[in-house]
Task: inverse folding
């Protein structure tokens, strides 16, 4: 007799099988051993207890599709880890709230979108909730406050908006999570104030990370009640008011980031915070204050960053003797007197950056000073002292790569890599992000060795088949995260199986791996393991073979003939691809005829993949509507920028064709050079020379850290004008750029200007010399009104755009800013009867440090470029001559280089979005033919 319990168990198994079958049906690239009717019989990534599915771990499997709502029938599920599957998209089904036994919900680094369902608050057993690095939108569900067992809450790196939810009489909120250790909410779009109710003395939080949001208002006094806290990041918001006076109650805090807000009032007193390692209070408007006397008492301090905080007075010599101090950055303050680092400064000290202060002297010791000291922009660097090493910014790069272990690196095939133990293997790769490290010296190899040891211990203690790990490419990204490339090599064979990959992924996604304390909170983004990428849902090979076997001899012969013909065709196609890289170009996909080239190199996909470190996130330097841009290194050591189109980008096909055709025929020092291209495996990639100092727009906005004075702006203007003159007058046939703007003018290591991005450009043949009738394209704010109204494109349209760029150069304002158009603003404000045309309130203060000689003529030239009628505008050749005249008025030689070395300008360039990304104010392509340019 069958009992009701047995019937229930049977029903459960049937539902579980149906749920997994539903997942299999909607996902591509599921493991090939997902066969049969029993998922507990060894399906990869599936674990069962008593014939019931309790765990699904499928990290880095290359899965594609959506998460089926049928997952609700896996009611015994405790762990769901689908991390690092970029192909997983769509919303998170609300039925996930039915998985009442779930303890670990980990969806890191996928592409899920839409709101986080409120039903997630029903998962009462949840310990770890990691939804970071997706595209979730909408508010944080208040129901998360019901997850009273939650240990780890990570919603960072999404697009979440709205306010931080706290409880009321009827609704839950995050303040109820008194047992939670981790609040990770950085890099979202959260707004409103930080509720004072959010924090209390009952909370046991260790990490509170709200960086890079849109939070405003004051920092609540209740924050000082959470005395368990170790890392606090509130930077890159719009917080205002004074820092709470009780913040020094947080005596266990190691990392404190309050930079890039609007904080005011007195400098916070951090006396007693004896565990503080890393402190960044930069870019706030504190009261003018002498150097805080309590700073030299922070014995654990490794990094002190207080740029642009209105500090004044002398730096006490006792600061430099703090035993663990590595970095001091106090740029853009009012510090003065004579700098004296003393004779017993810290042996750990690497950098003292005091740019743009009022320091009059430096006491040098007889034994020398082996610390990088930067005093550029201080009185001490005037006159003959300007030749001192501390008056020149040195280019410094910290690099590291795990060395081979007493062996010679093996020579491997293109898709294998030599491990630290010198074996050719297929590593599992990805990127580690540390959100609040307690150190700043990236050149210290011991920190990497400790991390490698810690990783190996974690993998081996979890019985994973790992032979070795390799770390490389250490950098700090724009969020001040410490970023490292990680490769994990297999043990006993040259590749991992799926069980090994899912196990490693789970150790990293589930936070089982604990890095050394100095690294702070981290997350990992794994790449899809390459050897899994081609697996399909199923195969009908057996059916085909069966039909062939059961057919007649004639059918068999026909099949053999067909196979032979197919192989011959494939052989011919391969030969054609070798001789013609555009053999598979399809004009029907709105990409035009096959490109006609004059000389750039055709790279293979595998070559560029290798040069760009498998297109890892660590090598990503920009993105836009076209795709992503990666930094790469050629075998010669030369740096390149690889612009990789998104798959299926129709506009990208046209841009690809246009840019390679145009750039293959232009060669000028003020035009970016095309190194080569790749057109295979469905990829469209352009390879440019690497331009290290980003776009002109980034420098004008202050994002790169490069200070552009009047002299440098004149040289940049001349270089860009010469590049455009070459396109108009010397290229054969001439080229109209059609999208001249500050984002398309790049600055190399010597601040030479280079015109870039030819995706919208047009060739101007002899028959079209007067004008070209074309669909209007360009960027609002820079676009020629005459071209917009008549759709008649001439080289004078570029001249107009260049005039707008010239106004940007003297104001540092974007063309359209807060509804105001820069051309109109200048026209209305200028008075030619007064000094500098009475434009003092509009001019960028950075060019007013000394009298900008020739500025009036510069403005006159810009306004002539902005004449309403194209016929009244000068040619670019005439523009170049006038800029040379302005430079002579300013006492400059127009033929001299921008800088003799990359160290001769203030500021260190930072790899922000990078020159090749699409950062248009608004790219106009004729989509709104009846729109009015009201800003004009």
Result:
């Amino acid at each position: 007799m069958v009992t009701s319990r047995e019937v229930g168990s049977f029903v459960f198994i049937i539902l579980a099988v149906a749920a997994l079958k539903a997942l299999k049906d909607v996902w591509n690239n599921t493991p090939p051993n997902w066969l049969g009717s029993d998922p507990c019989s060894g399906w990869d990534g599936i674990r069962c207890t008593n014939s019931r599915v309790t765990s699904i771990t499928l990290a880095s499997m290359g899965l594609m599709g959506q998460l089926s709502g049928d997952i609700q029938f896996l009611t015994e599920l405790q762990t769901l880890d689908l991390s690092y599957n970029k192909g997983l998209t769509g919303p998170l089904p609300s039925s996930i709230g039915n998985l009442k036994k779930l303890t670990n919900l980990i969806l890191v680094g996928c592409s899920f979108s839409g709101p986080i369902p409120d039903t997630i608050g029903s998962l009462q057993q949840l310990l770890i909730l990691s939804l970071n690095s997706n595209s979730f939108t909408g508010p944080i569900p208040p129901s998360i406050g019901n997850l009273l067992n939650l240990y780890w809450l990570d919603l960072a790196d999404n697009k979440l908006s709205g306010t931080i939810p706290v409880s009321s009489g009827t609704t839950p909120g995050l303040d109820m999570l008194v047992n939670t250790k981790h609040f990770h909410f950085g890099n979202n779009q959260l707004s409103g104030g930080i509720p004072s109710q959010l924090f209390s003395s009952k909370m046991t939080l260790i990490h509170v990370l709200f960086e890079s949001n849109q939070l405003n208002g004051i920092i609540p006094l209740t924050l000082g009640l959470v005395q368990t806290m170790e890392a606090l990041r509130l930077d890159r918001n719009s917080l205002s008011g004074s820092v709470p006076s009780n913040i020094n109650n947080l005596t266990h805090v190691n990392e404190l980031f309050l930079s890039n807000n609007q904080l005011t009032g007195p400098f916070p007193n951090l006396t007693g915070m004896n565990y503080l390692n890393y402190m960044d209070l930069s870019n706030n408007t504190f009261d003018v204050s002498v150097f805080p006397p309590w700073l030299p008492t922070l014995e654990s301090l490794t990094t002190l960053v207080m740029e642009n905080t209105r500090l004044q007075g002398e730096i006490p010599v006792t600061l430099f003797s703090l035993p663990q101090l590595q970095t001091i950055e106090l740029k853009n303050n009012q510090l003065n007197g004579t700098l004296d680092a003393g004779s017993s400064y810290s042996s750990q000290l690497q950098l003292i950056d005091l740019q743009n202060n009022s320091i009059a002297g430096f006491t040098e010791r007889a034994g020398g000073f082996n610390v990088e000291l930067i005093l550029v922009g201080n009185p001490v660097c005037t006159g003959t002292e300007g030749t001192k090493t501390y008056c020149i910014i040195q280019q410094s790069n910290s690099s590291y790569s795990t060395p081979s272990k007493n062996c010679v690196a093996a020579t491997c095939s293109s898709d294998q890599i030599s491990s630290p133990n010198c074996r050719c293997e297929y590593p599992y790769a990805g990127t580690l992000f540390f959100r609040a490290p307690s150190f700043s010296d990236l050149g210290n190899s011991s920190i990497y060795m400790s991390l490698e040891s810690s990783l190996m211990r974690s993998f081996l203690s979890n019985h994973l088949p790992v032979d070795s790990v390799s770390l490389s490419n250490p950098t700090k990204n724009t969020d001040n995260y410490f970023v490292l490339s990680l490769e994990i090599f297999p043990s006993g064979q040259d590749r991992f199986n799926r069980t090994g990959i899912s196990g490693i992924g789970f150790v990293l996604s589930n936070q089982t791996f604990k890095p050394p304390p100095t690294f702070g909170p981290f997350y990992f983004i794994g790449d899809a393991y390459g050897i899994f990428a081609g697996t399909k849902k199923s195969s009908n090979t057996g059916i085909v073979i069966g039909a062939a076997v059961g057919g007649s001899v004639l059918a068999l012969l026909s099949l053999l003939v067909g196979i032979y013909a197919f192989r011959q065709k494939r052989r011919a196609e391969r030969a054609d691809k070798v001789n013609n890289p555009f053999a598979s170009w399809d004009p029907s996909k709105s990409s035009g005829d096959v490109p006609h080239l004059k000389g750039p190199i055709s790279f293979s996909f595998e070559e560029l993949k290798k040069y760009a470190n498998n297109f890892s996130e660590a090598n990503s330097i920009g993105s836009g509507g076209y795709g992503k841009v990666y930094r790469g290194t050629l075998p010669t050591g030369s740096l390149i920028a690889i612009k990789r189109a998104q798959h299926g980008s129709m506009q990208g096909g046209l841009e690809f064709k246009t840019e390679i055709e145009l750039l293959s025929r232009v060669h000028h020092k003020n035009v970016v050079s095309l190194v080569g291209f790749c057109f295979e495996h469905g990829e469209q990639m352009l390879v440019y020379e690497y331009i290290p100092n980003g776009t002109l727009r980034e420098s004008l906005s202050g994002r790169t850290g490069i200070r552009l004075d009047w002299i440098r702006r004149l040289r940049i203007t001349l270089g860009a004008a010469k590049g455009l003159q070459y396109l108009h007058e010397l290229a054969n046939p001439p080229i109209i750029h059609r999208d001249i703007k500050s984002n398309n003018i790049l600055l190399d290591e010597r601040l030479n200007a280079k015109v870039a991005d030819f995706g919208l450009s047009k060739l101007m043949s002899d028959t079209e010399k007067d004008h070209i009738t074309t669909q209007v394209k360009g960027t609002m704010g820079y676009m020629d009104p005459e071209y917009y109204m008549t759709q008649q494109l001439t080289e004078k349209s570029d001249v107009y755009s260049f005039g707008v760029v010239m106004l940007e150069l003297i104001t540092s304002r974007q063309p359209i800013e807060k509804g105001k158009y820069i051309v109109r603003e200048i026209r209305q404000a200028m008075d030619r009867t007064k000094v500098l045309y009475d434009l003092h309130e509009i001019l960028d203060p950075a060019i007013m440090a000394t009298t900008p000689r020739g500025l009036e003529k510069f403005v006159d030239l810009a306004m002539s470029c902005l004449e309403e009628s194209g016929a009244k505008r000068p040619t670019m050749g005439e523009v170049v001559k006038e800029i040379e005249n302005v430079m002579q008025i300013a006492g400059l030689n127009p033929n001299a280089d921008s800088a003799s070395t990359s160290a001769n300008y203030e500021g260190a360039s930072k790899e922000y979005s990078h020159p090749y990304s699409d950062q248009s104010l608004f790219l106009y392509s004729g989509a709104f033919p009846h729109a009015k340019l009201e800003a004009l």
In short: The radius of gyration is 31 Å. The domain at 696-924 is CATH 1.10.510.10 (Transferase(Phosphotransferase); domain 1). The mean pLDDT is 83. The longest helix spans residues 553-579.
